[in-house]
Design a protein that fits this description.
The complex is a heterodimer of chains A (310) and B (307). By secondary structure, chain A is α/β, with parallel strands linked by helices. Chain A contains 11 helices and 14 strands. Chain B is an all-alpha fold. The chains are: A alpha/beta (310), B mainly alpha (307).
Chain lengths: 310, 307
């Protein structure tokens, strides 16, 4: 596997403000990389530097083997970029918008028409191609955006918050579309999103950026076990009956490190397997056990942990 | 660049505000031609017969401007209309980052837009002139001669450069302000200043420099200062240029002393001589366009595009 996107101590300063600070990022060929971080952490600035839309203050970046600061055109030929809140020419139809982008990429007219028709079909807008973009809903615009970045047949997709402002169903559909298309075409995807649950399902590797610094980068599963070094087991418990005093008794169990209330139950973070003690405690108190389930760390937990530490 | 050019050109020709502006200008052009037709007989007596056709553009009846002045007044409006949202509009729609993440040079966007604007202006100016020529022929009963056609062609070129300045200025503002409304208001304000207030400023300045002119020399000096100050405005450059170009008898800009006129043959100037007279004006207009465009170019190449 070769590295497609790589940065070395990349930094961007705006006068006194440090937007991106010594960022080291590595994205491998063919993977979907989750680029996470709170608003204003420097994600968009990093992406702009990767595309040569803004110049880094210091450090280097390499995309598909080209330096975006020196050869932006070579990078832009190979990278499809969907900005946060992409805008379209509202007085033109979806078809014309895509065709304009195709022409800017110097794709021959016949080939451009073929690609645009095909892509509109793939993102489910075949019937709306001749409608003006101003009539489009937000979800349709995002799908049009996905079609647009694919017009140039890129090797890399850079998607900045493609699910921003979409309803849950629309967001999931966009992400599914991205996953499907990237598998079909063998695309490398750099995805920034706040939908941690979906990102966890889509991405093998993630990077978390806070205040311009990449605080952690790696495989989701490894990051998960890293934060659970001491607390190997997580259990979700739900019981029925009078549960007033139970929480304190759970806390006092040997091996339970943390008790976190959840709807209708608790999440226990434990240093050892406490299931036998737990079951006997519940039965001793005359309560019935509804659910006892072991839980893997979610990306949300990983994210919050690193975010709070930073 | 040609892709941007053709797209912008199509946008201009199909945009509603351009249609409105074109309608207003064509209608007023028709009116101006009509009223010129009323007074052309009187004016023609002072004009050499071989350039009577040009009177269609310059003859003034009553309160109505002659067409050339009228175009000089409304031309800037066309330029500003075509330019004020060139870049700011792309910011507002959020299309700029999408377009600039395509493999095109950044300057081809602004070049394409500027050229498309110029092409629109050229089409508009040329069609009005052709319209006037067409209307003028039955009105006067004879076609324009070669010399008159050449003068009208140069008139068109100067018009394009002049409106091109306003286009470049509006584009500069649209890059500097990034907000469509601010860009539009900024360029309109500057237009008003240069079209109207610059005369008052020139008057004030000349009054301050030469107080109570009593001798003819002082009067001339005062008038010269006034002209010099008002020439900071492209409107003055345009009107002086057009005055010389469309009026072959004219050979001076400002006031002339009686003794300077002695010995001058009152014959019309050849086209080449008229052009020689206005060459500095044309060069200045071109330079103004170039400066405006260069500043926009440099500014645009260095801005960071976030939306």
């Amino acid at each position: 596997m070769s590295t497609v996107i790589e940065t070395h101590n990349l930094a961007k300063h705006y006068r006194d403000l440090v937007a991106v600070n010594d960022l080291n990022l590595r994205v491998e060929q063919g993977e979907i990389f989750g680029f996470l971080g709170p608003n204003g952490a420097g994600k968009t600035t990093t992406i702009l530097m990767l595309l040569g839309l803004t110049e880094p203050t210091s450090g280097q970046a390499s995309v598909c083997g080209f330096d975006p600061a020196r050869q932006p055109l070579e990078v832009k030929k190979r990278v499809g970029y969907l900005p946060e809140n992409p805008g379209y020419y509202e007085d033109m139809t979806a078809w014309e918008n895509l065709l304009y982008i195709a022409r800017l990429n110097r794709i021959p007219e016949g080939e451009a028409r073929r690609r645009v028709t095909l892509l509109l079909e793939q993102v489910g807008l075949a019937a709306d191609g001749d409608r003006l973009v101003r009539e489009f809903s937000r979800g349709m615009k995002q799908r049009l955006g996905i079609a647009e970045v694919l017009v140039k047949e890129p090797q890399v997709l850079v998607l900045d918050e493609p699910t921003l402002g979409l309803d849950p169903d629309g967001a999931v559909r966009i992400l599914e579309l991205i996953t499907k298309l990237s598998h079909e075409r063998g695309l490398t995807v750099l995805l920034s999103s706040h939908l941690l649950h979906q990102v966890q399902q889509m991405c093998r590797r993630i990077g978390i950026i806070v205040k311009g610094r990449m605080i952690v980068q790696g495989e989701v599963s490894k990051l998960g076990s890293a934060i659970l070094k001491e607390r190997q087991w997580n259990f979700l418990v739900q019981v029925d009956g009078r549960t007033d005093a139970l929480e304190n008794e759970l806390r006092s169990l040997n091996g339970v490190a943390e008790v976190e209330p959840r709807t209708g139950g608790w999440l226990l973070r434990c240093t050892e397997d406490v299931r036998p003690q737990l079951v006997s405690l519940v039965t001793k108190k005359g309560l019935s056990l509804l659910q006892l389930r072991s839980e893997d760390p979610t990306l949300e937990e990983i994210y919050l942990k690193y975010f709070r530490e930073a | 660049m040609s892709v941007v050019f053709w797209k912008e050109l199509a946008d201009h020709f199909s945009s509603r505000r351009f249609m409105i502006l074109l309608t207003i200008i064509v209608l007023t052009g028709l009116w101006a031609t009509y009223s010129a037709g009323q007074t052309i007989r009187l004016d023609a007596e002072n004009m050499p017969t071989e350039s009577v056709f040009l009177l269609l553009l310059t003859s003034q009846s009553g309160a109505l401007f002659p067409l050339a002045t009228f175009l000089g007044f409304l031309g800037p409006l066309v330029g500003i209309t075509l330019g004020f949202d060139a870049i700011s509009g792309e910011y507002a729609r959020g299309t700029l980052s999408r377009v600039l993440s395509q493999p095109i040079y950044r300057d081809s966007l602004i070049n394409g837009k500027f050229l498309a604007g110029l092409a629109t202006v050229a089409t508009f100016w040329a069609s009005i002139l052709i319209l006037v020529i067409g209307l003028g022929m039955p009105l006067l009963g004879f076609p324009p001669n070669g010399e008159e056609l050449w003068r009208m062609l140069f008139f068109t070129l100067i018009g394009i450069i002049y409106v091109g300045f306003w286009l470049a200025l509006a584009m500069l503002f649209s890059i500097l302000f990034q907000r469509t409304v601010t860009a539009a208001l900024g360029s309109l304000a500057l237009w008003l200043f240069l079209a109207i207030f610059v005369w008052m400023v020139a008057k004030v300045v000349s009054d301050i420099v030469v107080r109570d002119p009593s001798t003819p020399e002082q009067l001339v000096q005062q008038a010269n200062i006034e002209t010099a100050v008002s020439r900071f405005s492209p409107n003055t450059l345009y009107s002086e240029t057009v005055h010389i170009l469309l009026n072959p008898v004219a050979r001076t800009f400002g006031p002339v002393l009686q003794e300077q006129l002695s010995g001058i043959l009152p014959t019309p100037l050849a086209l080449s001589q008229s052009l020689l007279l206005i060459f500095p004006h044309i060069a200045t207009l071109l330079a103004l366009v170039a400066v405006c465009f260069a500043i926009s170019y440099i500014k645009f190449m260095r801005t960071e595009i976030r939306t």
